[in-house]
Automatic annotation (TrEMBL):
The keyword Oxidoreductase applies. One of its GO terms (molecular function) is nitronate monooxygenase activity. Keywords: Flavoprotein, FMN, Monooxygenase, Oxidoreductase. The keyword DNA damage does not apply. It comes from the Bacteria. InterPro entries: Aldolase_TIM, NMO. CDD domains: NPD_like. This is Nitronate monooxygenase. It holds the Pfam family NMO.
Amino acid sequence: MWVGRAALAAAVSNAGGLGMVTALTQPDPDALRREIKSCQELTDKPFGVNLTILPSIDPPPYAAYRQAIIDSGVRIVETAGSEPREHVEHFKSHGIKVIHKCTAVRHALSAERMGVDAVSIDGFECAGHPGEEDIPGLIMIPAAADKLSIPMLASGGFGDGRGLAAALVLGAEGINMGTRFCATVEAPLHQNFKQHMVDSDERSTDIIFRTYRNSARVSRNAISQEVLSIEGQGRPFADVAHLVKGARGLEGLISGNTDHGIWTAGQVMGLIHDIPTVAELMARIVADAEAIFTRRISGMLS
Ligand SMILES: Cc1cc2nc3c(=O)[nH]c(=O)nc-3n(C[C@H](O)[C@H](O)[C@H](O)COP(=O)(O)O)c2cc1C
């Protein structure tokens, strides 16, 4: 949300990854059509669109967003959130490949039965919504690998070559990264946020909304602490709504005030020490993972 725009998605795809435009960052389906067109002008490589299905203060017109994605010729969609069936079936009926992102092995299996082409599984480390069961990737990824037949991406806490190597060893086909891509030259957010991620460590996040059973991992700041204090008093969501609304978060991202609203970030901030271009970051991750396999692992074997 807010960061998955054409420029960043195209940079990821041009560097050999699968960039994602996030549908709901755009205010309406026509704006999404324009954003997809911009991305198509910036890259001739495949990219995807994320459609997030989450409880929200005002539910968006999902069917119209889906139609914008289909009409624009996008070939890959990442769905995220609960009850994806209607969305998955619509996309699949148009031959679109669907990656469903989830936070539990049983949800991954249910998505597999639904006919998705791949899953992406977020461990507890992740930015955004980790679910309510607090299972870290070190357990979740191999547990899912034991049961799934379709390809799986490991998500949550990945930001360097060690993470990529670990994900492959645990049984994933690749990694999904959110927070790490936010601290790149191309990420469309104020420099203060990128620097804040460099200056933060692995303890710099809060889990808010736990008492509403809609946990969200965000960067710890004055607002996340205020939300936790209100939740700690057993008060309802209505009492925090003004603090957490998306428009407020966006104002902060634009003005550069990291304490203005809540903003999503994961524990992987503890592994972020610079602000490279996307191409530099991805080349480094792949090279470091290869070095681990060719030197460290092969050294162990000999
Ligand atoms: C700023 C930001 C916004 C995000 N917005 C969404 C979103 O709208 N929909 C979604 O499915 N995931 C969203 N995520 C979660 C990522 O897609 C991904 O699952 C997560 O970042 C992986 O964990 P990591 O940050 O440790 O890499 C967001 C993540 C970040 C950092």
